[in-house]
Specification:
alpha+beta; about 160 residues; Hypothetical Protein Tm1070, Chain: A; four-stranded antiparallel β-sheet; elongated
Length: about 160
Amino acid sequence: MEKKHIWLVLIIFFVLGIAFQVQAKGCKDLSEGQTLYVPVYSHIYIGNKANPYLLTVTLSIRNINPLHPITLSVVDYYGTQGKLIKHYLDKPLSLPPMASTRYIILSKDKEGGSGANFIVNWSSKKPVNPPIVESIMIGTQSQQGISFTSRGQVIVQTNP
């Protein structure tokens, strides 16, 4: 290979390398960690007498990063009045790339109330795509069923 071709190949690789770095830095959604507030409802109210309609809650945490794990350090469940009801983690939990975990509040557990929530704290050693954190509520009574979802809201952001 001639010197001209070697230099041309090197220049192309250099330019492509810079382009890929700029593209990665331009991906503003990458994070090294977040604290999320996730609204959940152990029940909602229906009818003229505002009767409670009991719901089963599933908190779903999905690591959507294809290359790097994330670490969950806090998964805490709070009631309507802001009182901590339950710590779900005794120690940090590593969630591998593309893996998910879930936490369930049974419909018979009314302690959280209509204003319950989860606080979820995750981190990563490298900038990653933030996980998808959702709550799914579902309930059935007689011949009626209801289901809906809610997404987590970032309240503290750790940027790369």
